[in-house]
Each structure stands twice: as structure tokens, then as C-alpha cells.
Amino acid sequence: MHRLKTEAAKESLLRRVRRQRLKYITVLPSLITILNGVCGFAAIAFAGKGASGGINHFSYHKLQLPYFAMAGYMVLLAMIADMLDGRLARMSKSTSSFGGQLDSLCDIISFGVAPAFLMLKVLEYKLTGFAESNPAIGNFLLRFIWLAAAAYISCAAIRLARFNVENEEDESAHMSFVGLPTPAAAGVIVSLIIFHQEALPELSAKNAQAYLIFENAIIYALPVLAIGMAVLMVSRIRYPHILNQYIKGKKPFAHLMRVLLFLGLIIWSRQAALVLIFCGFAASGFAKWIYYRVGIFRRAPKWGPQSPQEEPPYPVS
User: Fold this and answer.
1) DSSP code of 292?
2) Is 150 or 93 the better-scoring residue by pLDDT?
């Protein structure tokens, strides 16, 4: 009797699964989401080519970039695709669970695996000579780099899985993020690598001493930053949605001035602008969290349960 009930339950479950089989998808947002994943795969391919090609450059018509820098730009292109697919889906009112799952699968490639692999290959390439001359310290550094890359990928996967569970498809729910978004975390890593590959060689011709200082600072800071980005991704610190909070709709005049300032910075030096924008965004949420945390401790004796207006203005969990 128990066996018959078990078989009946299995058959009922199979019927429900068949009923829930996917029949329709939105083609354009899905194609853009897949473009996101393809760009992430291209970034991994360029990073591998840079590790084996050394100082060789990627050339296409008039475009000539180091392979590592090209990998970084592929991640940035994936970010643009990631912004467009969700926007198109919400504008056409065609958001679905399939689109959310596909987006997260592509995000883990472009903003999880690709930045970690790129960082790993850049640091391995730079530390090869050092590891040969100092085997003990070199082996320790290489293991630490692997640990940092593994921690980054793991936390990126956790961040995306948590987002899938907690996310709401309503546009009003996309005003802020809990934890550093994976594209922003990837941006911190790839912007420093792009700056290292493109801007520093120009500096070496003018000032060799400054070049060595900046290069060593970036090389040794990258694994530490990767671990820091991993912690911020799985944290409960809130980060604003830049497009929805500061650009979309009617905003104060100061917002226009900030946008013009950023555009001017990009025109002056896109490599330095990328570093300042991504690192500044990642640091801003943590700095705001610390500010309100300290403010809460200072004002704690004055607080009481009298009214909800006395609650802290920023989430501290």
C-alpha cells in the first residue's frame, strides 16, 4: 500500500513538472542576456591569450590593445548588456523566472569567473620571475592569489543566488541593492587591470620610479581587493541603483553637474575614470554604512521606542 502511494506521488509530481514546462520566452532580452555571457567567455579567452602571448597585443583594423586590457573591456561590454536586458524586460512587461535565472547564469561567467581568472593570469604573469628568484615567498603569493580568486567566485555565486531568492520583479524594488552588485565588484578588478595595462606603460616612459610604485601597488592590492569585494558582495550593506536613483526622472541640478564631471573625467582619461568610478562606488556604500553605524552608537542613549521616526536612517544589518 505504501509503495502504491509513493508511486502515485511521483506520478503526480511528474505531471506538475510537465505542466510547468517552459513554452514561451522573450527573445530580445534573452539574446542580450546571452550576449552578456558570451562577452564573459571572450574575456576569459583574451585573458588566456594574454598569459601565453606575453607583451603581444590584440589588433583589429586600427584597434590595438593588450590582451589583458581587451579582456577587461569585454567585461565592461558584458555590464552594458546586463543593464539593457533587465531594462528591456521591465519596459516590455515581460519579466520572467526564466529571464532571471538566465541572467544569473551569464552573470556568474562575466562578473564572477572572468574577473577572477583575469586577475589570476595577470598576477601569475607578473610574479613568474619573482617566484623563480624567491621560491618560498613566490609560492605563498601564488597560493594567496588562488585563494583570493576562489573566494571572489564563491561570494559572487552566493550573491547571485541570494538575489534570485530575494528579488522582486517590480520596477519600484530596483532602487537599491543589498550587498555590492557583482558588476560593480567586477568593475573594481577589471578597471585596475585596464589602468595597469594601458595607462602605466605611458607613465614608464616619463617617470620610471613612479611607474614601479604604481605597478607594485596595483599588483599587490589586486588579491586583497578581490577578497574585499567578495565580503562586500555577501554583506547586507545597501548600494544605490545609479540609473534609477540619480539619472532616471527629474533630479536636482547638482546631479547634472556630477554627470558632466564624470563625462569630463572620462574624456580626460578613461582608464583613470574607470578606476575612480568603480572604486568610489564600492567604497561609498561601506563608508556610508560605517558613518551611520558610528552615528547610531553615538546617539544610542537618546533613542527609545516612542516613535518610528527615531529609527536609524540607514539599515545597519
Assistant:
1) H
2) 150
